[in-house]
Amino acid sequence: TALLSPSRQILQEGAESSRRQLLIEAFVSAGRVDNITMVMGLHPQYLSSFWKTQYLLLRMDGPLPYHKRHYIAIMAAARHQCSYLVGLHMGEFLQVGGNPAWLQGLHCAPQKLRNLNEINKLLAHRPWLITKEHIEALLKPGENSWSLAELVQALVLLTHYHSLASFVFGCGINPEEDQDGGHGCRPPSPHSDSSPASDDSLGGSGGKDAMQEVEVLMERMKLLQESQLEEEGVTQEEMATRFELEKTESLLVAPSDIADHSLQSNVLCFVEDPEFGYKDFTRRGEQAPPTFRAQ
User: Fold this and answer.
1) pLDDT (average), residues 255-279
2) DSSP characters for 205-256?
3) How far is residue 46 CA from its own chain's centroid?
4) CB-based contacts of 209: which residues, under 8 Å, 6+ apart?
5) How far apart are CA 148 and CA 4, in angstroms?
6) pTM here?
7) Buried b (16+ CB within 10 A) or exposed e, 47-72
8) CA-closest candidate to residue 135, choices 125, 150, 124
9) Gap between the Cα atoms of 113 and 107, Å rounded
10) SS (H, E, C) 90-119
């Protein structure tokens, strides 16, 4: 172990140096370091690949103008009600010269972009339902038709931001400081045991609150388990019901009406048919839907 320790320390220092360099590059190029970058910065190689992808999609030559690329990102993120990404790309949309009127909602965007709504909805929730007719409808000659090159770029953007929305939710990424309800986000420290900043590692006071809530819930679960040992004949189903009740009553789970109310209108205004969501791809005893092959 003693022999391995120096090499492990060198690797850790190298990773930290690489991460620091990437964050500096982010600040120099964009004038800010967004919270996605802060979280991904814990894995510098992944962040580097992610940046290259983002740069190719949003900044490099392509058939779609920059402002439309950001608007498509907004449409995709709004489909999953990801207010973080919607807010981020609303700012980017304006920075590259996008028309502010479009940000009032999907109904204010050009018809050509609005025509993506159906395929955006399907890609987000039930991609197996897409048929060649959906593609043909968009490519059909006319005033609002898409070229094949434009559509390919649009579809890649849609699927990229559907996936990124999942990453944002999975990591609990907070809004930026200049977004509504935003505050700074410091990534979890790899050395949190000894780091003086470990108290803030989950993002300001929010991190402390979250940890306290977890501790409270764990204490309640412990008491439940102790009571189960004392009581005879308590079934697993009864214990599961009690667990769910404790979880719902804890601060970790907000009532659905509060969660719905907190969802900003600047997200829902980019969504048509918000009730449309995921359903199982196949169910036992049912015939599987046909697979759409691109070739």
Assistant:
1) 62
2) HHHHHHHHHHHHHHHHHHHHHHHHHHSSS--HHHHHHHHHHHHHHSTTS--H
3) 16
4) 251
5) 55
6) 0.63
7) beebbeeeeebbeeebebebbbbbbb
8) 150
9) 10
10) HHHHHHCCCCHHHHHCHHHCCHHHHCCHHH
The DSSP output letter for 204 is: T
* Tokens (6 digits) for 91: 């700012």
Vertex 19 angle, CA 16 and 20, to 5°: 85
pLDDT digit string, tens, across residues 186-225: 334 344 343 334 344 444 444 555 566 666 766 766 676 6
Residue 16 tokens, joined: 């930290």
82 is catalytic: yes
Give CA 187 to chain center in angstroms: 16
Q: Which pLDDT belongs to residue 192?
A: 39
Six-digit token pair at 221? 């679960």
Confidence of residue 274 (pLDDT cuts 50, 70, 90): confident
> 214 near 182, Cβ under 8 Å?
no
Which positions ≥6 away from 182 have C-beta within 8 Å? 174, 175, 176
Spatial contact of 94 and 178, defined as CB atoms under 8 Å apart: no
Name the residue type at position 175.
P
DSSP state of 159: H
Please give the full DSSP string across 21-39, using - where no structure is assigned.
Answer: HHHHHHHHHHSS--HHHHH
Amino acid at 287: Q
**Set 82, 171, 185, 269: catalytic member:** 82
Backbone phi, psi, residue 127, to 5°: -60, -25
pLDDT at 28: 60
Average pLDDT over residues 16-40: 73
58 to 44, 166, 202, 271: CA distances (angstroms): 21, 19, 29, 22
Residues with Cβ within 8 Å of residue 37, at least 6 apart in sequence:
22, 23, 26, 47
Torsion of CA 7, 9, 10, 12, to 10 degrees: 120
